[in-house]
Amino acid sequence: MKMTKSLILGSAATLLAASGAQAADLPVKAKAVEYVKVCSLYGPGFYYIPGTDTCIKLSGYLRVDVLANTNADATGNTAGAGGANNRFTNGYTWRSREGLNIDTRTATEYGVVRTYLNSTFSWTTDSYAGQGNGTTVYSPIGTASAPNNASGGAVAAGTLGVYYAFIQFAGFTIGKAISQFSAPWTGYPGNNFDGLVGGGGTSTGVNQFTYTAQFGNGVSVSLSAQDQTAYNQAGVVNLGAPVNFGVPGNTNVFGISDYAGTIAPDLVVMLRLDQAWGLFQASFAAHDNHAAYYGGTELTGHPDDKWGWAGQLALSIKNIPTGPGDTINLQGVYTNGATRYNIQELAAQAGANTIFGSTNVPGAYQSIGFGIAPDTVFITGGQQQTIKTWGVRGAYVHNWSPNWNTSIYGAWAQVNYNSTAKGFLCGPAGNGVGGSLSNFFGPGSSLTSCNPDYNIAQLGTQTQWTPVKNLTFSADFTYTHLDQNFAGTVTFPGSSTIGKPAAVYELKDQNTYTMLLRAQRNW
Q1: Burial of residue 161 (number of CB atoms within 10 Å: 0-12, 13-18, 19+)
Q2: pTM (2 decimals)?
Q3: Where does the UniProt annotation place the signal sequence (predicted)?
């Protein structure tokens, strides 16, 4: 028995050893690698970048716009070939665009470090205009050697845009972001149309260095220095060098924008209260107007710098009794030498309106309306005179159902020149004789009023249908009225660029209409 027991135990040990050796020869199953891990710290759509503690979210949209009765996707027919209202005016303009957003966030001992990029890729047939010789061209996008869609271009014959590119850290925002002056809805209180007056814009971002302090209960204050050159310069106009009163093809009319180099950024302060019922915001901006020389060299001298400013109040009211999700957005603004904070960069040709229309005046060929709004004007040997503006903008949005909503929106801006500036333009008698406009109001002109003040009024409605989540179809109709204060007739020198002959034109208020149809898929 003892021998038998020893044989059994020996055999068992041998079998265990053999089975262990065989197990060692088998491949070991590796632990699954988690390539994509959901990051729940910052809301839906975020994932950890593999191998890091940084979360990333990719999002964007694809949008197609078709606009009726405009030569530009943004502003409507208020200048150029669009404002000519003739055979060079587009019946439609078309744009296809893809937007891409990249949002990264990392938790640190100083708080969240965030980077954000919003870029767009667009193909647009804006400014599709006749040349007066039987040919047509697309808008000049691309490079100098390949300026047209048909000839190539910078990005697959389209354009690349960078809207936002900023870093946020410990209360600081550094880079290209929406101006702290602007209301949260920028130029869109209840519309898709880009060209509303009545408040700050920069919906595509402006370079800035901002610190935002949070005080709790929805109260915050932002202090910001932001670049003024890209979007917030309306012009420091040298009336001693007349060139162009908003009409393509003319060379000796109103004045030339005479900027020196950059010297000071715009300084912005913003106070905001965010609550469940909506928000209230107060904004202030200081804007330096830094002019170059009266003539071509340093020896001609220059005017002193002139600081302008702008103030704005904005109010949003949510949860109103008319229905769930209904909203009212309102804002009002005043500017003095800082026009772009009212007539923003996409609005009504950014304050350079020239619109042609019909006339009943005997002897007049057509009518024409002007509205020009720089920051300042000056003459040789004189100082800058600031332009003052008022503006309001607002909308009411009503949700008929989860799939349908309609908004009614409006905007208004008033532009005022002081008496000194009017004298520069219209002469001592106020009839256009002896002022810089005498270069434009040629022999045969008969002015009963020479007054560059004007108003812009806009009214519109938009309806949106969202049949499935993140897919929206919308129709947006906008009416724009130019209420200008010139009166009488003017001998206009003509403009071959837009097909207008040299003739007598009546000075008259003008109207224009735009319809925007949009399909957009967000992802």
Answers
A1: middle
A2: 0.87
A3: 1-23
